[in-house]
């Protein structure tokens, strides 16, 4: 406890923490040794001063060490975001995940439950008949047998519940918004991570490098979305062979026209929209999912350009492979 007090004092003075100090502090939170006042004080101190790459790396490492592992027999990819961007958008990452799985790339998607939106992955999948409260062994079976599995925060690291009420009471972004997408229980080496702020695009790519990722894109849409957007340009930091490079992508590069944000509005109808898309209905929703799936296929080494990735994604949809992954997931998850 004395070490934690010293760390909090250091943050209060405006100093930054080392990776090891941050890991120690967050391990104290996860183990229940830290008091609510200490947790709130540390989170807000870091938030006001601004978190660093080393601090996010240390915090994510501590949470990874505390959570049960999902031992996937393959090398899956994850498509996820911080889940705190604009609430008007459809759940594109969930749709893109089925497209990628249908293209033959296994997906282990990590997501949080949403309290403020009906379009979170948990809500959408539950409406479709997928059993979502699964133990790690069952999730691994889904990835192996269905080619896709979903993991939700609460079941896989109950220690997070200790700080959930404090985060809610603070009512602002904290470092937990950044480390959630980095805490996939399968320890994926390839992923797309959407972030809520452009300022975190490049730093989070370096965090992923520190955590052992091999190939990743960190993305932020110019409209505020934590995904690759159809409404304008998307800011990207790509981790490739140990090097981080930054660039922008546009819908036109993938062969799509730009749209107004109203075309991507989602909510309670997301489950129906996902089913319609999987069974061939054209929409801007489908285009947005294909765009994000194309980037995932680049990261997985299956495509070299966005247009090539879109072509693979369309094939996954048109031959029914993406829809078949959903059907199989429903069956396996309920077995």
What key attributes describe this structure?
2 domains, about 325 residues, single chain, two-stranded parallel ribbon, 5-stranded mixed sheet, alpha/beta, Transferase, Pyrimidine Nucleoside Phosphorylase, Chain A, domain 3, 15 helices, Pyrimidine Nucleoside Phosphorylase, Chain A, domain 2
Which geometry do the CA atoms define? Answer: globular
Average of pLDDT:
89
- What structural category do the secondary elements indicate? alpha/beta
CATH architecture of the largest domain: 3-Layer(aba) Sandwich
The count of strands amounts to: 7
Strand order of the largest sheet: 1-4-5-6-7
CATH superfamily of the largest domain: Nucleoside phosphorylase/phosphoribosyltransferase catalytic domain
Low-confidence stretches at least 5 residues in length (pLDDT < 50)? none
Order of helices and strands: HHHHEHEHHEHHHEHEEEHHHH
CATH class of the largest domain: Alpha Beta
Helix content: 40-55%
Pfam family, one: Glycos_transf_3
EC number: 2.4.2.18
InterPro entries: Anthranilate_Pribosyl_Tfrase, Glycosyl_Trfase_fam3, Glycosyl_Trfase_fam3_N_dom, Glycosyl_Trfase_fam3_N_dom_sf, Nuc_phospho_transferase
Catalytic activity: N-(5-phospho-beta-D-ribosyl)anthranilate + diphosphate = 5-phospho-alpha-D-ribose 1-diphosphate + anthranilate
């Amino acid at each position: 406890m004395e070490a934690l007090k010293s760390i909090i004092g250091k943050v209060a003075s405006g100093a930054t923490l080392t990776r090891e100090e941050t890991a120690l502090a967050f391990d104290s939170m996860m183990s229940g040794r830290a008091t609510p006042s200490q947790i709130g004080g540390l989170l807000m101190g870091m938030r006001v001063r601004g978190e660093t790459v080393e601090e996010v790396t240390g915090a994510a490492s501590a949470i990874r060490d505390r959570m049960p592992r999902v031992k996937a027999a393959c090398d899956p990819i994850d498509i996820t975001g911080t889940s705190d961007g604009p609430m008007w958008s459809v759940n594109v990452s969930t749709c893109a995940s089925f497209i990628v799985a249908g293209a033959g790339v296994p997906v282990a998607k990590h997501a949080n439950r949403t309290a403020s939106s009906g379009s979170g992955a948990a809500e959408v999948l539950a409406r479709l008949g997928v059993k979502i409260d699964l133990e790690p062994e069952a999730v691994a079976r889904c990835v192996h047998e269905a080619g896709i599995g979903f993991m939700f925060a609460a079941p896989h690291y109950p220690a997070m519940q200790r700080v959930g009420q404090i985060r809610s009471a603070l009512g602002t972004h904290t470092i937990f918004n950044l480390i959630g997408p980095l805490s996939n229980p399968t320890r994926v080496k390839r992923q797309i991570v959407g972030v809520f702020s452009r300022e975190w695009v490049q730093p989070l790519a370096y965090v992923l490098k520190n955590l052992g990722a091999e190939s990743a894109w960190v993305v932020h849409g110019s409209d505020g979305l934590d995904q690759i957007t159809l409404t304008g340009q998307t800011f990207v930091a790509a981790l490739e062979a140990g090097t981080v490079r930054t660039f922008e992508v546009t819908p036109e590069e993938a062969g799509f026209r730009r749209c107004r944000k109203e075309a991507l509005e989602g909510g309670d109808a997301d489950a129906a929209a996902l089913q319609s898309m999987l069974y061939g209905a054209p929409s801007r929703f489908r285009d947005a999912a294909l765009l994000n799936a194309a980037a995932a296929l680049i990261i997985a080494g299956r495509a070299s350009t966005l247009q090539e990735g879109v072509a693979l994604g369309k094939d996954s949809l048109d031959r029914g492979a993406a829809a078949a992954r959903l059907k199989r997931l429903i069956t396996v998850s309920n077995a």
